[in-house]
Amino acid sequence: MTESSREAWSQKGYxxxxxxxxxxxxxxxxxxWYWFSDSLRTRSISLWxxxxxxxxTALLCIGLTVLVDTxxxxxxxxxxxxxxxxxxxxxxxxxxxxxxxxxxxxKSTKAVS
Length: 113
Description:
Blueprint: H1 3-11, H2 20-41, H3 47-73, H4 79-89
């Protein structure tokens, strides 16, 4: 993609949907799922042990994301919970606004009620 075409896409509001980190996370999840399902199928690991590993890993990952985001934002923060609370519990997701990414879209509209 040339620089001028990138600029045109940027001006029209198109965004890259897939970042390298999202691809690596997806591959990690698929790999872990394959390994766990294969281990359970061959009975090389028990269901209870697999659940302990999964819960432990989930808590470790949550702890790491809270730690990193707390340092970056300088307040205790778990971003995924904040989004869940704001969008689902408070039902305020419309306040985020939308970007209609069609070539003729008017970008002055920030939120649709």
